[in-house]
Automatic annotation (TrEMBL):
Protein name per its UniProtKB record: Cytochrome P450
Organism name: Xylaria multiplex
Organism domain of life: Eukaryota
Gene3D superfamilies: Cytochrome P450
Reported cofactor(s): heme
A Pfam family the protein falls into: p450
PANTHER family on file: CYTOCHROME P450, CYTOCHROME P450 MONOOXYGENASE
């Protein structure tokens, strides 16, 4: 495992000679083929990603922002409804999960699953993911187990299938049915709505690849952002100075007409302290602790003064990277957004290191645009409407680390803030 920032920047650069290691195969969910995440063949991966990426860029960014705004408003309404019903103490972690699943499902296939409105884990997805995330991580780090677990014959016999009546198989069938319907009804016809699946179809992504990538992008899009969002909320609630500084910046911005309702992406860039909170939250509550290994080029490489033979798997240790005192200072373990204030070279470098969370070059996260839209907006929208307090200060949540994270019982007391407008 490595956490040297310069090495990781080099590995993630556009001209890096590094390739995906076999660890990625542990993310395969269907014996019939790979998703863009589990595909380790560089040429196939790059060709496929080139068809998927345009859906998240260009003119589509405005459409993505509109959907993010709509679901942030829905989250605010859902929290307000619980307060009105006398349920001011709530599991805010689950509410954010419901919000995220509905947002991602609507972005991908144009239909929210209805988790937030119904306060229900439709299709058992969240329950399934709490098992699937640890399983993927465990098998990924055990080569012999990974080879068996991801082999076509094993997955065909024992893996999830769209014919299953529950679990991951049911989740796969929901997505498969939507893909089959879309190809039957949409090709050659005017499009009356927009979603990412439509963009993929226009870009020539075949049905089987659409299904495989949807099956991975739902968990990839929902299980990562929620860690940062929930974690940053906890850090803010545990840091009164930072909490009230952020509230004051929001209050001043509204009073000066610099914050619309909802806040725009452009407006968020002008909120210096909000941006600092987002960077500091992403640093300390990075969605990924470790994993996503890369193969050293055949010629070998020198890492931190040591020669590493070609073909060796190197694992980024994001948890240690984001607490590196040489980069973030002697108080790197502390939540202090002020470290990101200003325009110095040190601030720019710290931001560059934090951005490694999303990868880079051919390894950059497909959903980076959506994640940034969410992170920059959600704390403004939540704190302009509510105040948050940890309900159980001695044990605010339960958290398990499996490379990525599983969180339960994030109980908070939420009250309305009527002073902002």
């Amino acid at each position: 495992m490595i956490f040297d920032p310069e090495t990781l920047i080099r590995i993630n650069s556009a001209r890096s000679g590094y390739e995906k290691a076999l660890w990625y195969e542990s993310a395969r969910m269907d014996y019939r083929g790979n998703s863009v995440i589990s595909e380790v063949n560089t040429a196939k991966h790059d060709k496929r990603k080139a068809k998927l990426a345009p859906a998240f860029a260009g003119k589509n960014v405005a459409l993505l922002e509109t959907k993010v705004d709509e679901w942030l408003a829905a989250l605010v309404r859902a929290i307000r409804a619980k307060i009105a019903a006398g349920e001011s103490t709530m599991d805010i972690g689950v509410m954010i999960q419901y919000f995220q699943v509905d947002l991602i499902s609507e972005l991908l296939i144009g239909k929210p699953w209805g988790d937030l409105e119904d306060e229900k884990d439709h299709f058992g997805y969240l329950k399934m993911s709490e098992f699937q995330v640890p399983a993927i991580q465990a098998f990924g780090f055990l080569p012999a187990a990974r080879i068996i677990y991801t082999s076509p014959w094993f997955m065909k016999l024992f893996g999830p299938k769209p014919t299953d009546t529950g679990g991951l198989g049911l989740f796969m069938r929901v997505l498969q049915d939507e893909v089959e319907k879309r190809f039957k009804e949409k090709i050659g016809k005017p499009e009356g709505s927009w979603d990412i699946l439509d963009e993929w179809i226009k870009n020539g992504v075949p049905p089987n690849e659409c299904q495989f990538d949807l099956s991975l992008l739902v968990p990839a899009g929902s299980e990562t952002s929620v860690m940062m969002i929930r974690g940053t909320l906890l850090l803010l609630m545990s840091s009164p100075v930072a909490y009230w500084k952020l509230k004051q910046e929001i209050r001043d911005g509204i009073a000066a007409g610099r914050i619309s309702n909802p806040i725009t992406s452009e407006e968020t860039r002008g909120l210096e302290y909000t941006q600092a909170v987002v960077r500091e939250g992403l640093r300390l509550m990075t969605p990924i602790g470790f994993g996503f290994s890369k193969l050293v080029p055949s010629s070998g490489d020198t890492i931190c003064g040591k020669f590493i033979p070609g073909g060796t798997s190197v694992y980024p240790n994001y948890h240690s990277l984001m607490r590196c005192e040489e980069v973030f200072g002697s108080d790197a373990e502390s939540f202090r957004p002020e470290r990101f204030l200003g325009n110095s070279q040190d601030v720019a470098y710290m931001s560059k290191v934090v951005d490694l969370t999303f990868g880079g070059g051919r390894f950059v996260c497909l959903g980076k645009t959506v994640a940034n839209l969410e992170m920059n907006k959600i704390f403004v929208e939540l704190l302009r409407n509510f105040d948050f307090q940890v309900a159980t200060p001695e044990k605010p949540w339960k958290r398990w680390a499996y490379g990525t994270f599983v969180i339960q019982d994030f109980r908070t007391r939420v009250t309305e803030d009527t002073t902002m407008e």
